From TrEMBL:
UniProt entry tagged with the keyword Iron: yes
Protein name: CRISPR-associated exonuclease Cas4
Gene3D superfamilies: 3.90.320.10
Lineage, uppermost ranks: Bacteria, Bacillati, Bacillota, Clostridia, Eubacteriales
Cofactor, free-text remark: Mg(2+) or Mn(2+) required for ssDNA cleavage activity.
Record bears the keyword tRNA processing: no
Superkingdom per UniProt: Bacteria
Native source species: Pelotomaculum propionicicum
An example Gene Ontology biological process: defense response to virus
UniProt KW keywords: Antiviral defense, Exonuclease, Hydrolase, Iron, Iron-sulfur, Manganese, Metal-binding, Nuclease
Role of this protein: CRISPR (clustered regularly interspaced short palindromic repeat) is an adaptive immune system that provides protection against mobile genetic elements (viruses, transposable elements and conjugative plasmids). CRISPR clusters contain sequences complementary to antecedent mobile elements and target invading nucleic acids. CRISPR clusters are transcribed and processed into CRISPR RNA (crRNA).
Family in the record: Belongs to the CRISPR-associated exonuclease Cas4 family.
EC number(s) per entry: 3.1.12.1
Molecular function as annotated in GO: exonuclease activity; iron-sulfur cluster binding; metal ion binding
Co-factor requirement: Mg(2+); Mn(2+); iron-sulfur cluster
Length: 168
């Protein structure tokens, strides 16, 4: 893998808060089972929730959903199948807000959990920016490790598409 292929993305920020090993595996293009039911359900919810309202915006290496543009207000969002990993989702969205900010675009974020009928606003405040900086540095450190971090059993493993790879 070429070193320039390694970069921090919103997806990696999401996984960082769950499992550093998964960050390494994804970024080194070790692809999990795409037919895994959790991967499929997540994709279905992402693809079919709020279809009329959503548009996709590509910024740098990131693709984000735009929920609303108007009155000088840009709302970008993330749709998740569960709020169980809320901090991961918040920081992923904070990463997208930061990508926009670096290009001079001010936006606010909105997390949506359609199965739970919940929404949450995400704002890039000073504290979140500091946390995001720390996280990006830590992700880069993981990406440049010569081997993936050793697997550590966590609750997420039983629903992880890499479970067989890590634990068989
Ligand atoms: S199975 Fe567990 S240890 Fe392996 S990548 Fe998934 S969450 Fe991480």
């Amino acid at each position: 893998m070429e070193e320039h292929d390694l970069y921090v993305s919103g997806t990696l920020v999401w996984y960082y808060y769950i499992c550093p090993r998964e960050v390494w595996l994804i970024s080194h293009q070790i692809t999990p089972d795409q037919d895994d039911s959790n991967v499929s359900l997540g994709r279905f919810i992402q693809d079919y929730s709020y279809p009329r309202e959503r548009k996709e915006l590509a910024v740098g290496h990131s693709k984000m959903d735009v929920f609303k543009v108007g009155n000088g207000e840009l709302i970008i969002g993330e749709v998740k199948k569960t709020s169980k990993y809320r901090q991961s989702a918040r920081m992923q969205l904070a990463f997208y807000l930061d990508e926009l900010k670096q290009r001079g675009v001010k936006a606010i974020g909105e997390l949506r959990f359609p199965r739970e009928k919940q929404r949450e606003e995400v704002i890039l405040d000073e504290e979140t920016e500091k946390e995001l900086d720390r996280t990006k540095r830590e992700i880069l450190r993981i990406l440049y490790l010569p081997h993936p971090p050793i697997p550590v059993k966590i609750k997420f493993c039983k629903n992880c598409a890499y479970a067989e790879f890590c634990w068989s």
